[in-house]
Write a structure and sequence with these properties.
It contains 15 helices and 23 strands. With 474 residues, it is α/β, with parallel strands linked by helices. The strands form seven sheets. An eight-stranded mixed beta sheet has the order 13-14-12-11-16-19-20-23. Strands 2-3-6-1-7 form a five-stranded parallel beta sheet, sandwiched between helices. A two-stranded antiparallel sheet has the order 4-5. The N and C termini lie far apart (70 Å).
């Protein structure tokens, strides 16, 4: 029998194979401010029992910030990566690179290019700092980077990291965070006990809706701190012994509300359709208004609309002209001017997802049929009348539910996104998935139904089973 080969003979033995350490992923947390990206990195360090090091890269413009200076320079020192390792005192800390999307570029070099080597698991086992001058092994470090905007990070750098998206908190989540963490912290900071300040769920909801407009919870914590200080002053002045905050007393303590979210319309109107929009600070509803008037057949667009939104309006106008007979629109209507306006006029708006809302408002204005005020809709449209999927559905629906709407018209390809909604919201809403603009109009216009590809107005025929009547109940 042949002698067993020793590990020294070029073949790794089982012990050395076990000693090979798995390289962890390099994580990139992307999300709006205040949603807990930095806190999660601290929690990772605490849960894994590792040291935690944080360096902020916001405004770093010099390659030497990362790699260090050569020792021939006066005032030379190591780069921030090795300084962080020295501070940690171990080879495997959790290393947070904060605000990696705010790196600057100057004539002294590009720090994001220097980071390429640091964040590449295939190369960072021999990272050379200019000050140290010898290779240093960073392969056991768990790097976590944070950013607000993914598009501001150079593509080669983003390619080396595993992106984890953080979305903004819903109102229910903010309420729970405030109840468990923010309120106890502010009570302690203001020298109050839980018995001296009682804050009910309704008052907390009023505070969140009327005084904060953000994706995270920083402003909410500031408002709770202000509330705590007001109560502490009253107790110190012996005016009261304890304060129970109700929705009515929130304004008395914090002043008048500074945020005014939209509310659902109270009645049907001709030419006014309800849409939904999404911003990093959450979703809400918007109204698209269309008005036909005497003129030469021009289309007027106002409301600070971006190019994509203007194109959606033109596509809706062209669809209405091409299908006037099926939509019950008189040909004379197109000889009049049509004005489309999206309030509020001071806020820039863009994106394709208001396509179906614009189409509903245009067809309503031209045909004289009112749009249902209790239905919110979203979806991109094509010239052929197809309804295409959109993004940010969870935030849009939550914003519309907060505004008082529970019936929704959505692209059928977005049906799977409804799983992201909390169970209590899914139970309250009625969703109609659609694929064609005709189905949207049959649901959005009062008294309309779709049969054999044509819109019919008046009371729908029960025996005909209109195509758009298939509602998805949650």
């Amino acid at each position: 029998s042949s002698p067993a080969r020793s590990p020294a003979g070029g073949q790794p033995g089982p012990a050395s194979a076990r000693e090979k350490k798995a390289k962890g992923p390099i994580l990139l947390f992307v999300g709006p401010p205040g949603v807990g990206k930095t806190s999660i990195a601290k929690s990772i360090a605490r849960a894994t029992g590792r040291e935690y090091v944080r360096i902020s890269l916001g405004g770093a413009r010099d390659e030497a910030d990362i790699r260090g200076h050569r020792r021939t320079y006066v005032g030379a020192m190591p780069g921030r990566i090795l300084n962080g390792m020295k501070q940690a005192g171990t080879k495997n800390p959790v290393f947070l690179l904060d605000e990696v999307d705010k790196l600057g570029v100057s004539f002294q070099g590009d720090p994001s290019a220097a980071l390429l080597e640091v964040l590449d698991p295939a190369q960072n086992d021999s990272f050379v700092d200019h000050y140290l001058g010898v290779p240093f092994d960073l392969s056991e470090v768990l790097f976590v980077a944070t950013a607000n905007y993914l598009q501001n990070i150079p593509a080669p750098l983003a390619d080396r990291m595993e992106v984890v998206e953080f979305s903004g908190y819903t109102e229910a989540e903010k309420r729970e965070i405030a109840r468990r963490y923010l309120l106890p912290r502010q009570l302690e900071e203001n020298g109050l006990s839980a018995a001296e300040l009682a804050l009910g769920d309704e008052a907390l909801s009023e505070l969140i809706a009327g005084y904060t407009r953000e994706a995270g919870v920083r402003q909410l914590e500031r408002e709770l701190g202000k509330l705590g200080r007001k109560v502490a002053r009253r107790i110190a002045a012996h005016e009261v012994e304890r304060v129970e905050v109700t929705p009515e007393t929130v304004a008395e303590l914090l002043g008048r509300p500074r945020v005014h979210p939209e509310r659902a319309a109270r009645h049907d109107q001709v030419g006014v359709a309800t849409g939904m929009f999404y911003t990093p600070v959450g979703g809400d509803i918007l109204f698209v208004e269309a008005q036909a008037m005497e003129g030469k057949g021009d289309l007027v667009l106002t409301g600070q609309l971006g190019d994509v939104m203007k194109e959606s309006a033109r596509a809706a106008w062209s669809f209405a002209r091409a299908h006037a007979a099926e939509l019950g629109i008189d040909a004379e209507a197109f000889r009049r001017d049509l004005h489309i306006h999206v309030p509020a006029g001071a806020i820039p708006k863009d994106g394709p997802s208001a396509g179906v809302t614009m189409a509903s408002a245009v067809v309503s204005a031209l045909s004289g049929r009112p749009v249902r005020h209790d239905v919110a809709m979203t979806g991109e449209i094509t010239l052929a009348g197809r309804v295409l999927p959109i993004g940010g559905l969870k935030e849009k629906i939550l914003g519309a539910v907060r505004a008082g709407i529970t019936t929704f018209v959505l692209p059928s390809e977005n049906s799977a996104d409804l799983d992201d909604l909390p169970a209590e919201v899914r139970a309250r809403i009625e969703v109609h998935p659609v694929e064609e603009l005709g189905q949207v109009l049959a649901l959005a216009l009062r008294g309309a139904s779709l049969r054999e590809g044509r819109l019919h107005f008046g009371e729908p025929d029960e025996s005909a089973e209109p195509e758009a009547e298939s509602a998805l109940r949650h």
